[in-house]
Design a protein that fits this description.
This protein is α/β, with parallel strands linked by helices. The protein is built from 9 helices and 7 strands, in the order βαααααβαβαβαβββα. Helix content is 41%, strand content 11%.
Amino acid sequence: MTELCALIFDVDGTLADTERDGHRVAFNRAFKEAGLDWDWPVELYGKLLKVTGGKERMLFYLDQYRPDWQRPADIKAFIAGLHAAKTQHYTQLLAEGAIPLRPGVKRLLLEAREQGMRLAIATTTTPANVTALLESTLGQEGLGWFEAIGAGDIVPAKKPAPDIYHYVLQQLRLHPAQCLAFEDSDNGLKSAVQAGLKTVVTVNDYTQNQDFTDAILVLDHLGNGDQPFTVLAGQVGWTTYFDMSLARGLHAKK
Ligand code: XBP
Ligand code: MG
């Protein structure tokens, strides 16, 4: 039987609930600062999340919701500048401690490290955002816990394409069968499953009604000893929180 060697985590929505109170707020600040009349309320942002990647999301917004907005000649450069400002606002928010890790994330990372499990990240978000989140929640050394970090534009096709997982697997020099992935969205799940990874989903407010048929387990969150998870799909036995023994059990399942 293939041994479980690594856990690969998505970032936004999985490690932390970053979208509503982090990315969305940062986008709106950047829009305001640039003198734009664009504004993304909580509900609209849920619809925009269909498109992964901040730059891609802004272009989608213009196409779908602001077709009459007069575009500058170099729209790509304009969006890139706006996105750089958004990243500044987002990393600032995180440095202020605005967004904590989701329940059970730090506990699982610590247990995995203790057992010599390799850790990696596969995300659509900008690398600076990953650094800001890990440093603000795990401290300066947090980034070093992850042996491979696949993020942002390092691959041309973002999730739901499997490219970012292919990249991370290559960095780790592991086969998909040796790893377990953690995601929170249908786009993320598609990406991981297409790369051949067994995937655990922890849902959030934006993703709870999406289709997670291909996940091996769907939970509300990873849980803790004093904060049991709710199983939305899949089998966990008597466990009330996600630990390495559950990870190994799921990985071994046919
Ligand atoms: C996350 C995203 C990201 C963030 C914004 O998707 O879609 O685009 O919302 O990040 P996933 P940037 O969790 O599936 O990786 O603005 O830095 O692109
Ligand atoms: Mg996500």
